[in-house]
Amino acid sequence: MSNLDSLDKIVSLAKARGFIFQSSEIYGGLSAVYDYGPLGVELKRNIRNAWWKEMTQRHNNIVGVDAAIFMHPKVWEASGHVGGFNDPMIDDKQSKKRYRADMLIEQYIMKLEKDGKADKATEIQELLDTSGTRKSLTEDLYDIIIENEIRSPDSGAFDWTEVRQFNLMFKTQFGATSSEEDGVYLRPETAQGIFVNYKNVLDTSRVGVPFGIAQTGKAFRNEVVARQFVFRMREFEQMEMQYFVEPGTDAEAYDAWKEKRISWHKRIGIREENLRFADHPQDKLAHYALAAVDVQYQFPIGWQEVEGIHNRSDFDLTQHQEFSGKKLDYFDQKAGKRYVPYVIETSIGLDRCTLMVLCDSYREEEVDGDKRVVLKMHPELAPIQVGVFPLIKKGPLQEIARKIEADLREDYSVQYDEAGSIGKRYRRLDEAGTPFCVTVDFDTIEQDQKVTIRHRDDMSQVRVDIDKVGDVIRDGMKNWKAE
Length: 483
Known about the structure:
CATH architecture of the largest domain: 2-Layer Sandwich
Radius of gyration: 26 Å
Low-confidence stretches: none
Helix content: 25-40%
Mean pLDDT: 92
CATH class of the largest domain: Alpha Beta
Number of helices: 16
Distance between the termini: 8 Å
Strand content: 25-35%
Structural class: alpha+beta
Number of strands: 23
CATH topology of the largest domain: BirA Bifunctional Protein, domain 2
Strand order of the largest sheet: 3-9-10-16-13-12-11
């Protein structure tokens, strides 16, 4: 079983093994921005490839695009991001630290519940849920903080600024002679790149409603509160698919994509007991949504969203049609009618998904009195899939090991290792999540022309003919099941 009780263990392992580093670390780091190291970049790429294969290769009516990060500023006006993509922020005058006002109140509610003050917690939760109905949203949040004397979690001070809205988009200048009017934004989501290319895809691909457009790529949000490692970052990567359907068939499509997406999480090795759906109440839906549900994972920091499935109605295409002046309706030749399609969206954070895989696969086990840290992740996601070792640094053993390494590299990511004891080499690759290790020993050359394959999850070992190594690993990859 997993004994991951703290995110700190993952942060420590990620740094020590080369999964994830703090960005610009030699200069003190950049808040909520991270770099992926040699193991992390492979894990992240494998997850991205697994998603892309699931969405495009396994569906004959979903195609891909790769839209630019820079987009025309009117795109963000049409989408509602310029006017409404805000977080309510409040500053502690003493520490100069900035907080999200709603999250500050949520933390206070959690503290009340922990202290056994359930009635008071319920009362404040109701006030929070109805914020914006008494005065404005910012004024209501400020009143809750002041009336309940909610203090700064860092300084302990009760010395707040007013609550004000803070737009989360990064703005920059565009062109050599740019002025304020020439400003463009780093995209806060990848979805709009799909919507503005909807007509291009229809005109150039052999697709018709219902069909989907998939995309992976970077997005940027100037989060007021960015924390919890790669769970909430200012530069992150999304994997999104927008599925265009005829109005009236959207509810059915929404339900179908819910099941498809939770099934994918299980297929990549995430344990079922750590996954759940969390529906958005009708009064908490985004302005564009008819329905929304999160796929949540039970992180050490609690149940948190990894993926969202949304019924976006015809909001996006209608908005872009109005703002651009271009027709974005669809002509259904069979039915002889025109309509603006509804959209079912599946949107997953690649960085959050990577963190989920690390958390779910993490194990601490006792082996012969020693602690073994191992990542029992799906073999197809593992950054190093096969380790190849000569038992000791002897020419004949090294020669065979190098030959096996070269043969396996055609199909798998392989690491050759001859440094240290065989036990230490196993432990190094256990921490990297490597599912199979192949060891060449003296029996290989003196007796049986066989090697030992050691399985990561249960540490079992089997002797295999050299020419059968690839077959055994292929079968092991195919038949793996999460514990």
